[in-house]
Amino acid sequence: QNKLKFLQRGKKSTWLSSFNVTDSLGIILISNFAYNTLILFFLALLYGAQARLANKPAPSLVQLNTGETTAVEAIGNKERTAEVIKAFTIKTMSDLFTWTGRLPGKDGVPFSNLDSDPGVEINGKGRRRGKISTQAWKASFALADDFRDPFLLKLVDLTPSNVFKGKTQFAFVPQFVREPIKIKEGEWTIDLVGTLTVLDTTNNLPSYIPFNKQIHVRAVEPPKYSPGMAEDSLPPIIAKAREKGLEVVSIKDLDSK
What we know:
Elements (H helix, E strand, L loop, with lengths): L20 H35 L5 E3 L5 E3 L10 H16 L22 E3 L7 E3 L1 H6 L5 H14 L9 E10 L3 E4 L2 E14 L4 E15 L14 H8 L4 E8 L4
Antiparallel strand pairs: 1-2, 3-4, 5-7, 6-7, 7-8, 8-9
């Protein structure tokens, strides 16, 4: 038996011998709790970042491709600010009713150096043919499709041939523009008071024609075309006339509401 004593191993106390199933479950639970706590912490950080982003005011300035900055504000697809409506109306009326006999040029170029305006021929469809100024023709693309053709026929009758001979000039001068009145979603009326100043270049004595109109405008999608097209081609002309996302539906005398 003594010879077999070396086969008998004494029991030693180790950490493994004291480690039981209950301890294992405890460690697992603690690890799981720590893991879930860490996830909740990161979720809280993510929620806080999203909340700050949602509450952050929209940028009030954007930079254009030219390097200039302009103020912006978030509005609905069919909404337009009063300032945009007034600016569009005045610009469109000015382009439609200002006839100088010259083509627009770059700023600083003397009037006498500007190219003569050959005008644009309008087919009267049974009525006399005539011309309107090139700038008026370009601006007419700011008019609604069903209003544009009859308006151009009337504009032919209003435009004297002496404009294209350099003997007569017309200039639209706005004097008062009322705040736009919303009549339905995406549509407004705006009252515009001004004068058409008519200059006879043979004596340089101006005369004045009252221009008191109520203009009906509505929101449209501004057209977008690929860059690189010639400026005198049709797509850029249309895009320029409608760049503010508006079109003219009608022009009426203020007294005939």
